Amino acid sequence: VGLELERSFGGEAANLVKSAGNSAASLIELITRHFPGFRDHSLYKGHQVFLYKRAQIFVADLWGAFKGENYGEFYDIKSITIFADYIVPAVLRELGILKYESNLCCSIDSNSEIVPGSEEEVEIRACSVHAVEKMRELINKKFGKQVRASESLPLFFE
């Protein structure tokens, strides 16, 4: 990371953030283009699937740390999705929003590893993002206000 920051951004993370022009989507694109460790993608049935969890967390952390101002000011912060990790699917499953086939249920319930990049893992993560986006749409319709993906789960049950 340090070498790429030096090479492309004068050694300053602030320059990376500034070069995105207050766009969360642009910053995610810059991060994933310049830093391979942030390229969260898998091959799923012959198609590349990009989830960019780490890059989105970086942007969300900036937004939160700076309270939406200065380095954390992004005019399109609502464009980032929920972070497709293991916690969100577990919550969605517990709430009955995600349902798995019996073999997958047995694997998860027995704490067997879901192989990173496997079809099951990609499906779980992608379906979690999709489910939260659908919940966000319902919240927007029901409450008449725009919410970020990270706000969707708590508001859904108000």
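(the above was protein one; protein two follows)
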Amino acid sequence: MATVAEALQLAVDHHRAGRLTEAGDLYRRILAVDGRNPQALHLLGVIERHRGNGEGAITLIGQAVAIMPDFAEARANLGNAYRSVGRIDEAAAAYRTAIAINPGVAGSYYSLGVLLCGQGGPRSQAQAMAALARTVLLTPGDPDVHHDLAIARKQAVRLDEAAAGQRRALALRPDFAAAWMTLGNVLTELGERDHALAAYRRSLRVQWASADAHYNFGNVLYTTGQLIEAATHYRHAVEYGLTSALVREAAAFADLGRDADAEASLRAALTVPGGDVPTAIDMLVALFIRQKRLDEARQFFASFRHPHSTPPTAYGAECLTAIAETYLEEGRNAEALTLLGRVNSHASRYFTVRSIAALRHTLDGMSLTLKRPSNPAPGRPRVGSSSLATHGRFAHNVFEYMLVRLYAETYGLTLETPDWVGGHYFDLNDPTPSAPLRPLFFPRRIINDLVEQPSEAPLVDCDILSPLGPYRYPERHRARIQSWFRPRPVWAPWITPPLERLRALGNTVVALHIRRGDFVLFRYTITETAWYVAWLQTIWSGLDRPVLYIASDDPAIVQDFAAFNPVTLADVAEPWSGLEYLQDFHVLANADILGVSAQSGFSRLAALLNTRAHLFVEPDAEAGRVQPYSPWMPETASGQAP
């Protein structure tokens, strides 16, 4: 009869050879004899994770590390099991424990780095880069590690380092198709389009059937005006399984004037598995509106059922938003608003359409309309940003507009904008789009560089898509930017009284923004109320008749500030249905002291536009407290922001 040790070795041999059924049977037989055998528990857990039973793996491997706490390999595989079921924080903790037990093993650093790389946010990015950099030190000859570190650096917008990292990966493995493709992506963001095209060609030479490479190659071809070639590569991407490329193919066809082909691609995107359904709906309703097919659009979207979703009405919010757009086109603002009242969505387009409907409905009540100018000189070089209407919400779009307008003014270009929330709320007067523009994908680095270091050859006649915003906010731009973003006087009856009532309650308005909602859903850094309570306790008695205003999407947190008699919008404002966030924003932008929420563009934008506050504070999640900060960057002696 074999000993437990012999049986375990045989099971491991089966496991390494991929005979998982035989290995699993032996591990179970071992555990029937020795139920506390950490090796058998651990390896059976590894098999369970491989079979898709993540929770079972957690139970088994958890038992193994409870018996043998310093079992580093099991700790690492416990992290893998947690990751497989989406328990990210526990996965990271398990990897860190494995590293603490055995800091010389590259695998745990690598797993931690890859895990954090996908989490977003500057803190996770920094930790991901640190873990992957350590992996590189331990395994300098591994091209995959160089590749993944470069991806992390790209996410952190350290593009030059990212390009260098991909080149190191390619020096180790010249036929590394993914590295060639990712190098192309980085070079695209750096504005080196010719080199990017060469990198994509190398990637496709190695792996022609790469849908992602065809898609990204198509994007750069599109940007350079090679629309037919771009459409061809989008088609290849679709053929190789990336059906989300159908919407890009449709965009290229539309710019070629081939509306029938564009519509066919969009209708296909609505029916194939994996299609980008929300974008296809947005683009198809825009096509219907452009062609004045409004009744057909309403009928189509009212009856649309997605064949690959359960329930098939899964895209009901997007369809109702599309129908509401047709009502807006006809000036039926109240009907659009009523329809959107049936929708509960975080989608950017829904937010834009609902806000515009609410603003226009407000104007209807005063017998007013917002009339936008057309481009008075359509032959003059111009730029636009159609994504202002489709990607991101209020603050996100304002930051993007900031960058695009800085760029337009730097080079004397006409800025054309779609209907977007900021264009309605602020006293802006940009002309409407006069003709299609070539798309500029991933433009943030390119446009920021051109603003900060003016060029003799700027990019013109392009649609700057999702530029995200400036990297820096130097003091020299402060007065100019603040002058752009003044609310239209017509909104005064809804935004002025709350501020007046606050000032009647005290002499110093202290406004705090505490964001929860989608931040919890998408795992952004959460601002703990205890940090702000502790800070308020240190300053409150020294303020001149302070009044505390709380702006939050989570009413439950207000009670945490009970000692300061907090005031919320409901206490001082008349209802402005669907636009309460603009009332909150106006208070934040005019407070005497402003505390922002971690990672929130909404309150950081309010801080940038606030001309009154003498103190701004922000959370320091690492330290667990709030600290003063300056929204605008001081200039150095050279006139540049540090």
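Reviewer note on protein two: The beta strands are 382-384, 414-416, 438-440, 462-464, 508-514, 546-552, 593-595, 615-620, 625-628.
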